[in-house]
Amino acid sequence: MIEFIKGEISDLTPTSVVLETNGIGYFLNISVNTFSQIQHAQTCRLYVHEAIREDAYVLFGFYDTEEREAFRKLISVSGVGANTARVILSSLTVAELESALLAENVSIFKNIKGIGTKTAQRIIVELKDKVSKVGLAGGEQGSLLVAGSEVRSEALAALQMLGFPAAASTKVVNAILKDQPGLTVEQLIKASLKML
User: Fold this and answer.
1) Which residues pair with 58 in a beta bridge?
2) What pLDDT does 33 receive?
3) Residue 135 gets which letter from DSSP?
4) pLDDT at position 13, please?
5) What residues contact 29, with CB distance under 8 A and at least 6 apart?
6) What was the pLDDT predicted at 193?
7) What fold does the segment set 66-142 form as a domain?
């Protein structure tokens, strides 16, 4: 099993990247969220999920292990394939996905290309319990209140635009919201900047 590939970015589109390492170019399918994290980099390390089928050997790359874990949980749902899971993770961040699952928000999933009502309901039914216990990525995110999810996702987006890594930002934002759930986006960003 390939855990990650670290190399020079030789080709990059919003849906794929070719990483060159030791003279070999690896083609990885990526989400738009991963693309936004690596679009200005010359080199990067992507965590890998291998999909081995009779007719193909396909690699999916993720900027962090949280996104890869969410991807693996999504493809465990009956009727959700690797490409559908990638489209979901291109439309929603891991935090937004967790919030949608906790809120049982069928319409968020239905707005994603290729997902109908039945598939959306199946995703919620099969993954909601996993999120409420430990979060999709195995962290403490699942225990956060859904009400603060919009503030949380806006703050995380702002922190990432400022150049802070997604994993570190998520950890800090979660810790702050656990103690002070009623913060505005601006207050949350300022508090996070002091801890990052």
Assistant:
1) 51
2) 92
3) -
4) 95
5) 15, 16, 58, 59, 60, 61, 82, 83, 86
6) 87
7) DNA polymerase; domain 1 (1.10.150)
Query: Is the model's pTM score more than 0.90?
Result: no
Instruction: Specify whether the CB–CB gap between 60 and 31 falls below 8 A.
Output: no
Superfamily (CATH H level) for 144-195: Ubiquitin-associated (UBA) domain (1.10.8.10)
Per-domain boundaries in the chain? 4-62, 66-142, 144-195
Q: Which residue has the tokens 């039945």?
A: 118
pLDDT recorded at residue 38: 95
Positions of the chain with pLDDT lower than 70, given as ranges: 132-149
* Alpha carbon distance 98, 169 (integer Å): 16
pLDDT of 140 reads: 46
Cα–Cα distance, 173 to 191 (Å, whole number): 8
What is the structure's pLDDT at 95? 87
Strand ranges in the chain using DSSP code E only, listed in sequence order: 4-12, 16-21, 24-29, 43-52, 57-62
Question: Which superfamily is assigned to 4-62 in CATH?
Answer: Nucleic acid-binding proteins (2.40.50.140)
